[in-house]
Amino acid sequence: MTIEFQVEGMSCQHCVAAVTNAIREHDETAQVQVDLASGRVAVESAQPADALKAAIDEAGYTVTRVTSGSAR
């Protein structure tokens, strides 16, 4: 399933790596695409959105919106 997160607090490539690594700690096979300019993080994962949101929160970033898409 594709899950999109709107994330605040990302400002550089280090932030992109931190968010990506935090997600992959919960699902090492997750496909993660981060759009730094818009703050959008799209994740293709079988993990529940709540678990991935918690991982992003624990990495020090704020998730302001979560949108679940369809399974691919």
In words, what does this structure look like?
There is one protein chain. With 72 residues, the protein is α+β, with helices and mostly antiparallel strands. It has a single domain (2-68), classed as Alpha-Beta Plaits. The protein has two helices and four strands, in the order βαββαβ. It has a four-stranded antiparallel beta sheet, covered by helices on one side. A hairpin with a 4-residue loop joins strand 2 (31-35) and strand 3 (40-44). Helix 1 crosses helix 2. It is globular.
Short summary of the structure?
The chain has 72 residues and is of the alpha+beta class. It contains two helices and four strands.
Task: Give a quick set of tags describing it.
72 residues; alpha+beta; Alpha-Beta Plaits; 2 helices
Topology-level CATH name:
Alpha-Beta Plaits
Tell me the radius of gyration. Answer: 11 Å
Mean pLDDT: 94
Helix/sheet category: alpha+beta
Residues in β-strands, percent: 25-35%
Helix percent band: 25-40%
Helix and strand pattern: EHEEHE
User: Got a strand count?
Assistant: 4
Number of helical elements: 2
Tell me the CATH architecture.
Answer: 2-Layer Sandwich
CATH C-level: Alpha Beta
Low-confidence stretches: none
Sheet with the most strands: spatial strand order = 2-3-1-4
Shape designation: globular
Distance between the termini: 6 Å
Count of discrete domains: 1
Biggest sheet, open or closed, and with what strands and sense? 4 strands, antiparallel
